[in-house]
Amino acid sequence: MAEMQATAVAHPNIAFIKYWGNRDQELRLPANGSISMTLADLSSKTTVQFDPSLAHDSFTLNDKPSTEAARQRVTTQLDFIRQMAGIELPASVVSHNNFPAAAGIASSASGFAALTLAASKAAGLDLDGKTLSRLARRASGSASRSIFGGFVELLPATTDEGSFAQPIAAADHWPLVDLIAVVEDSEKEVGSTQGHQLANTSPLQPARVQSAPQRLELTREAIGQRDFSRLAQIAELDSDMMHAVMMTSTPSLHYWLPTTIQVMRKIRQLRRQGVPVFYTLDAGPNPHCICPEDRAEIVETTIDEIQGVKRIFRSEVGGPARLVENSSPD
Ligand code: PMV
Residue 184, SS3? Predict the structure, then answer.
């Protein structure tokens, strides 16, 4: 029997136009499209081995057996792949992130992109980017964007076939940097899977979803023309709109901490002083500060001076999910 093992590396991404809420929970069809930038310096490396001698799937994350809930999520994703490949074998999944588990940076995008690529290869499938992206979306919407490098758009659709990500510009199109200010490094109280289900309880969600196509278009244009001030304006607005939806959901989700707001204010102040930089936040309290590479030092030094910022991760724009040797360094 051919060796049914493969290893893949994938990077997380930061969304400029956010995905929040599903049109179809079961199929994980996003309520609106989203656009992100893939992050080179953070990565997940995942090895999948289908093995007839196993009693059931096993999942090890950062050298520790995972929680039952995480293993279940991995099994659900493996089931889609087993079904496509026509196999029924259990698998062992071993995954490592090169960023600390307690960094407050979601690893679901990079983790599920790497899992989907490694598992499909190990199962003998040779899937194209579109199919991989569609499959990854079933585990985590943001994972569908991490299949690709550079600047990536996830298309909303009413069917499973129609909702997948596609690259809109290559990684070297625009040398931007993401400085992630870690203000809280414990696990989030409410993760995005649960959060998406609350989106429709906010009276602001319909307005956010309805106006998303316009923001998506402006963002596509801003990226195409490398128009930083336009991107800054739209991305900050979009992040604030998503958090407004979160705050006005029932129950409400308040992710911002006092230091989060201090960083946001400092970023706006820097911009008034002429430094091109903007903030954007995922479902957590840690601001991502985006700026051109040649301004990263001044932004990093300024943010670092804020008491309450525990550490800063820096990342450039990264490439797509890819297959690697199991022995390759993380
Ligand atoms: O992919 P998920 O289910 O973890 O959802 C991602 C949600 C946000 O990170 C808040 C926004 C986004 O588009 O990445």
Answer: coil
Smallest CA separation from ligand 1 atom 6, residue: 142
- By most ligand atoms within 8 Å of CB, the mutation choice from 105, 142, 247 for ligand 1 is 142
On whether the CB atoms of residues 263 and 278 are closer than 8 A, the answer is no
Q: Residue 278 burial (CB < 10 Å; 0-12/13-18/19+)? A: buried
Atom of ligand 1 minimally distant from the CA of 282 = 10
For the entire predicted model, the pTM comes to 0.97
Structure tokens, 218? 């402006």
Enter the DSSP assignment of 307. T
User: d(Cα 151, Cα 14) in Å, to the nearest integer?
Assistant: 10
Query: 20: closest CA among 158, 116, 142, 138?
Result: 142
Which residue's CA is minimally distant from atom 8 of ligand 1? 282
Residues 6+ apart with CB under 8 A from 251: 198
Spell out which residues line ligand 1, taking CB within 6 angstroms: 15, 18-20, 34, 106, 108-109, 140-142, 192-193, 282-283
Which pLDDT belongs to residue 188?
A: 64
Instruction: Report the run of H or E that residue 86 belongs to, with start and end.
Output: none
pLDDT tens digit string along 2-43? 689 999 999 999 999 999 999 999 999 999 999 999 999 999
User: Measured in angstroms, how far is the CA atom of residue 145 from the centroid of ligand 1?
Assistant: 10
Paired tokens of 66: 């995972």
